[in-house]
Amino acid sequence: MNKQSRHDAAENASLRQQFNHQICDFIDRSPTPFHAVRNMAQLLDEAEFIVLQEGDSWALEAGEQYYVIRNQSSIIAWTQGHQSLTEQGFHMLGAHTDSPCLKVKPNADIHQSNSWRLGVEVYGGALLNPWFDRDLSVAGRVHYQDKQGSLACALIDFKCPIATIPSLAIHLDREANQKRSVNAQLHLPVLIACGDDNEKNSLHQLLLTQLNEMAIDADQVLDHELFLYDTQPSNTIGLHGDFIAASRLDNLLSCYIDLMAIITASEATESQWSMLICSDHEEVGSHSAVGAAGPFLQQTLQRILPNSEDFVRAVSHSTLISTDNAHALHPSHVDKMDPLHSPKVNGGPVIKINANQRYASNSETQALFRALCHRCDIPVQDFVTRSDMGCGSTIGPITATEIGVKTLDVGVPTYGMHSIRELTGSHDPLRMKKVLSHFLMRN
């Protein structure tokens, strides 16, 4: 390797390390979809995107950059291009803000057996066993009444570990390593304190105290949407720093990559029509007012293009790249993958393909992505699930169905998807960001 090559390699390594550090920081500051959207909005503000309110009248201008939020948990950002939208269409990126986890029940307090626990329900298809014996905290959204009688809302994050789910000792369950199963109702309530049964200990009082410590003038907690999360920080790990270990990689990793791609594209001299859609509730089917199966995207597009014929013309010229983590070939379970479609960690972005439309990729959109990767000198991989196994899905087919847009499903290869702590390669995120930035900036 000559001197220039060594310099280029060192520069690329530095950029990669910086980007991975930013990913870890974003994930650690985003324990819930509400926090993720707030953090994305802050980064868009810094990039001079203009926030819009759904309840206001919009006066959109060419060359400007906007974003709009619904329910504090879904966000759409876009750049107004200088060319005709009906002839050019949008270059769109899509991801989701939610992750499988444990959600606190409304009447959560359980006082029994010298303990104070909180009842939870399972949100999405979480891998449950890794939740035991972790240092957990609580974050989410709290609605309250202030001392003047007005209703208000605040995001809350205890940050420090205030909860855990202790395992049952193997002495009391001799077959635990062979066939331990988890009963979500009986085994998952989280332990937050020790003590005799005491009705004075209540989650609402705990939340009220926390709000007051945040200098919020709260008089009564009315309701909440709270989630448990692992307090272990995200990190780059491995002998050679090959991996990123973090909670909620599925799909905050894609949210951050997509966000940085549209911000990079917005800085281009002649910006194109580009759009980012990050939707809540993907892990539970996307059927909500803020999910990909809901009306948020279509209503936003219709406000940008009020004329129905212009809307259809623009969509016909648009392309959506749905970004959601892909399964990586697991070295201990190679039999779980099709041997010819087994993406490798740090092997490059993955095109996700399924004959039964669990992914929305087709030969046209796949060819586009392969060409983009080739132009960026980035390797590309394919994932097709084994023919004798079921296949997960993404927002890609849902958005394609709702809007009629040409769609591709891609992702960064990942181990341990839906675990409390997932693992991906340290080289792939920046590669994906480069490809997506190129996609948004192309004519």
Could you name the key traits of this structure?
five-stranded mixed beta sheet; 443 residues; Aminopeptidase; globular
Description:
This protein has 443 residues and is α/β, with parallel strands linked by helices. It has two domains: 18-99 and 247-441, Zn peptidases (Aminopeptidase, 3-Layer(aba) Sandwich); 101-230, Aminopeptidase i, Domain 2 (Roll), CATH 2.30.250. The chain has twelve helices and 20 strands. The protein has a nine-stranded mixed sheet, sandwiched between helices. It has a five-stranded mixed sheet with strand order 11-12-20-19-15. The longest helix is centred in the first third of the chain and has 26 residues, at 3-28. It is globular, with a radius of gyration of 23 Å. The relative contact order is 0.17. The mean pLDDT is 95.
Regions with little confidence, pLDDT below 50 for 5+ residues:
none
CATH architectural arrangement of the largest domain: 3-Layer(aba) Sandwich
Global geometry: globular
CATH superfamily of the largest domain: Zn peptidases
Which radius of gyration do the C-alpha atoms yield?
23 Å
Across the major sheet, the strand order is 1-2-3-13-4-14-18-16-17
Structure class: alpha/beta
Number of helices: 12
